[in-house]
Amino acid sequence: MKPKFLYLHLYHYLCSRTTQVKTNMKEKAFTLRLYEDEIEALEELKKIGNEKTDSKIIRYVILRFKEVVDNLRIEQQKNHQLSQELSDIKEKVRAYNAAFNDLKII
Predict the structure, then answer these.
(1) In this predicted model, what pLDDT tens digit does every residue of 51-104 receive, in sequence order?
(2) How far apart, in whole angstroms, are the C-alpha atoms of residue 89 and residue 102?
(3) What are the backbone dihedrals phi and psi of residue 7, each rounded to the nearest 5 degrees, phi first?
(4) Residue 53 DSSP symbol
(5) For residue 16, is pLDDT > 90?
């Protein structure tokens, strides 16, 4: 599959922590080659992020990547905890059924 070319200019902004004013702008330009499936994914991201241009959605993803990964880790921890609780409940139900069956025998 031959890649389609997408030319992007990404800007890296260094923000002041107190004033939240963008200062000291640096620019980094590069060429990004995307295959059709990657372009489709980019279009999907544009819909999710409510952005119209390729470079804006890529900036959006870069700036929010850490937040997304942090949220994913939190959800994975919750999932693991719920899985543990489910295993505990299943074990209690098995023990209850075994005790109930023992009572039937008597």
Answers:
(1) 999 989 998 888 889 998 999 999 999 999 999 999 999 999 999 999 988 887
(2) 20
(3) -95, 125
(4) S
(5) no
Residue carrying structure tokens 């937040």 = 67
pLDDT score of 24: 64
Q: Please name which of 61, 65, 58 lies closest in space to residue 8, comparing C-alpha atoms.
A: 58
Q: Measured in whole angstroms, how far is the alpha carbon of residue 16 from the centre of its chain?
A: 27
**Tokens 């009572």 correspond to what residue?**
103
Number of residues written out for the chain? 106
DSSP state of 2: P
The pLDDT assigned to 17 comes to 36
Residue 4 contacts residue 36 (beta carbons within 8 Å) = yes
Give the integer Cα–Cα distance in Å for 31 and 35: 13
The number of beta carbons lying within 10 Å of the beta carbon of residue 14 is 9
Cβ count within 10 A of residue 64: 12
Cα separation of 94 and 87, whole Å?
11
> pTM of whole model > 0.85?
no
